Amino acid sequence: MLVNPVKRTYLALESWFNLSFGSEWNPLYHLGTLSFFLFWVVLISGIYLFIPFHGSLDGAHASIEYMTHQQWYAGGVMRSLHRYASDAVIVTVLLHLFKEFASGRYRGFRWFSWVTGIPTLWMVVTLGITGYWLVWDEMAQYVAVGSARLMDALPIFSGAMTRNFISGGMSDRFFILIEFLHLLGQPLLLVFMLWLHVKRLSNVNINPPRGLAAGTFVALLALSLFEPATSHAPANLARVPQEIHIDWFYLNVYPLLEIWPAQRIWMLTIGVTLLLMMMPWLLPRRDGPKAVVDLEHCNGCGICFEDCPFEAITLRARSDGARYDHEVVVDPALCGACGICAGSCPASNPFRTPRGELKTGIDMPQLPANEMRRRVRATIGSMHGELKILLIGCEHGLNVERLDGSEVRGIRLICSGMLPPTLVEFALKHGADGVMVVGCRQNDCYFRFGNRWTRMRFAGERKPILRARAERERILIHGAAEPDIDEIEHDLGEFRKRLRELRPIDAAIST
User: Fold this and answer.
1) For the residues 428-445, what does the mean pLDDT come to?
2) Which of 18, 33, 120, 488 is buried most, with the most CB atoms less than 10 Å from its CB?
3) Are β-strands 326-330 and 313-317 bridged in parallel, bridged antiparallel, or unpaired?
């Protein structure tokens, strides 16, 4: 199967991180929550630094130097944590951006999260830029003068900003304005942008695994102790700084002011921003038919509402006069066409109507539950080996059909989360010696929760659960992408050995 080079690069990076950190603590699986954790580090360290900070042209640099050198064991460490956590946020956000692009998770119904994420990144950058001003050293002077040139290139300022930096022309009032922006104005706007960014997602988690959070903090603390953040010489508007150690995470456009006019830098910045925000429509993707509700078979239990990853399902008062209190409603604009809701529906149980057409409360028009049941039976019937192993995969993980053989056949669902656990039991009752479910890589589902809900359902931790009567030793849950085919083939071989050691399965039910 052809995998585009960008996705192949990301999958290779993800594989390396899995080997280094394990799948549970792989930072690439927790980039969003890691960013939130780093924001907490920045916030707490910033509050500590604000207490002794003197916000004035004469006192800012001296107070920072006191904390850095005289109180290195507390204030100095906090300053370094503040600096390095801020840099780390840029790394995690850029990796998150690359991951979503490489995985194709920015098109179709996901356009909103992508489009709101780009300006959120710029909010983080501008917050870091004003933070450099507050140190009021030569770096701050360099950033302030460069920022003034950039602002004056806009028609709303017309040179007013640069005049503040003529020797003797800048006052504490302007400095206090920057302090207000960095400490209150920009953080509040950033919180709003973060809320907007995740507005269309359900079950949003902002906390990374404790082990990963602890390891990240220890790494930041070690870096702060062995390579503490320091200042340049105090700012002096009467002279031009001669040597500046640029923080390329935040200040990457400022060196361009040495060779380009400010207007050209604005054109570049705005052009790149607009290009990124237009990506969902420049490389469009069709989501497929959306989930459809059949009130005749819906009891309003709300399991699909709880499982939907994208806030596409709501519960409302019953409208058809049935004895149930609620009904579910699907918003097509928010629906990801993943089918997780169909896997959640108790009516998707294939044993309900063994001979008639299977109808569910919510279903996918392109692959309804009745068609899944038919495919399962037809695929089992097409096998002619000593064992019959059914592989059930998804469209965004490993293509399980590549493993087809005399003893093995694969079928692909939209997402592993649309698999009702009872369908696996149904397969075992109708001739399969074993069933191997292969969704996306663990903790990295294309539809956020498909593989997680599947594991929890089969473990009895989330409804609908795999019934106790099912032969669990004949079921294997796995996660894989295209580069993992060797690992899957090895595990499939071990699964074969295990099935041969088990007692023969009951005779298939006649059809």
Assistant:
1) 95
2) 488
3) antiparallel
Q: Which amino acid is at 467?
A: R
User: What digits encode the pLDDT tens for the residues 169-205?
Assistant: 567 877 888 889 999 999 999 999 999 999 999 999 9
For residue 292 the two structure tokens come to 């459809």
| Phi, psi dihedral angles at 469 (to 5 degrees) | -75, -15
Q: What is the CATH number of domain 5-236+248-282?
A: 1.20.810.10
Domain boundaries, the chain: 5-236+248-282, 292-501
Phi, psi torsion values for 439, nearest 5 degrees? -95, -160
> Which residues, 6 or more positions from 46, have their beta carbon under 8 angstroms from its beta carbon?
82, 183
Distance (Å, whole) CA 82 – CA 63: 16
Q: Is the pLDDT of residue 511 over 50?
A: no
Q: What is the pLDDT of residue 252?
A: 93
Query: Is 435 in contact with 476 (CB distance < 8 Å)?
Result: yes
Neighbours of 126 (CB within 10 A): 17
Q: What is the pLDDT of residue 390?
A: 98
Helix (H, G, I), strand (E, B) or coil at 292: strand
510: pLDDT strictly greater than 60: no
In DSSP notation, 309-367 reads TTS-EEEEE-SS--SSSEEEEE-TTT-----HHHHH-GGG-TTSSSSS----SEE-TTS
Contact 453, 340 (CB under 8 A): yes
Amino acid of residue 113: S
CB of 341 closer than 8 Å to CB of 309: no
pLDDT at 290: 97
